[in-house]
């Protein structure tokens, strides 16, 4: 599958609704989809009142109260220390530049091929 097809696949299914009534639903979008040997790790984001909030996608059967943060660098910490060693499958267009800065801090420049392709 080429890069365009992968990004299109994630763009088509980026909104998740949580909450009881229609008035209280929060729309969560996929911000970052990473893949490793244990499967996928997904960072979700919601934009409300001129602020982004982030959380790690969790299995609904296992999820209790998710940790929600409002800073992008804190959101990356929710993914664990090794997030930059996973393969990026999708990066939300609004976060490519900021993610690229964070990846360059976390990885040596010789190990950035997949990240450069995803962010630039």
Distance between the termini: 19 Å
- The share of residues in helices is 25-40%
The chain-level mean pLDDT equals 81
Number of strands: 5
Strand content: 25-35%
Number of domains: 1
Outline the low-pLDDT stretches: 1-9, 11-23
Largest sheet: 5 strands, antiparallel
Structural class based on helices, strands and sheet pairing: alpha+beta
Run of helices and strands: HEEEEHEHH
Query: Given the structure, what is the number of helices?
Result: 4
Shape: globular
Rounded Rg: 15 Å
Outline the secondary-structure elements.
Elements: H1 3-12, E1 15-18, E2 26-36, E3 39-48, E4 51-56, H2 72-78, E5 87-91, H3 96-106, H4 113-119
Antiparallel strand pairs: 1-2, 2-3, 2-5, 3-4
Helix pairs in contact: 3-4
Describe the 3D structure.
Helices cover 29% and strands 30% of the residues. By secondary structure, it is an alpha+beta fold. The protein has one domain (3-119). Strands 1, 2, 3, 4 and 5 form a five-stranded antiparallel beta sheet that branches. Helix 3 (96-106) runs antiparallel to helix 4 (113-119).
Fill in the keyword field for this structure:
single chain; 120 residues; alpha+beta; 5 strands; 30% strand; globular; disordered N terminus
């Amino acid at each position: 599958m080429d890069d365009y097809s992968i990004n299109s696949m994630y763009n088509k299914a980026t909104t998740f609704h949580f909450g009881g009534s229609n008035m209280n639903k929060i729309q969560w979008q996929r911000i970052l989809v990473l893949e490793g040997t244990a499967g996928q790790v997904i960072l979700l984001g919601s934009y409300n009142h001129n602020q982004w909030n982030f959380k790690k996608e969790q299995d609904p059967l296992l999820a209790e109260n998710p940790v929600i943060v409002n800073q992008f660098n804190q959101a990356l910490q929710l993914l664990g220390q090794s997030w930059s060693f996973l393969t990026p499958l999708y990066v939300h267009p609004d976060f490519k530049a900021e993610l690229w800065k964070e990846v360059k801090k976390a990885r040596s420049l010789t190990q950035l091929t997949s990240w450069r392709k995803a962010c630039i």
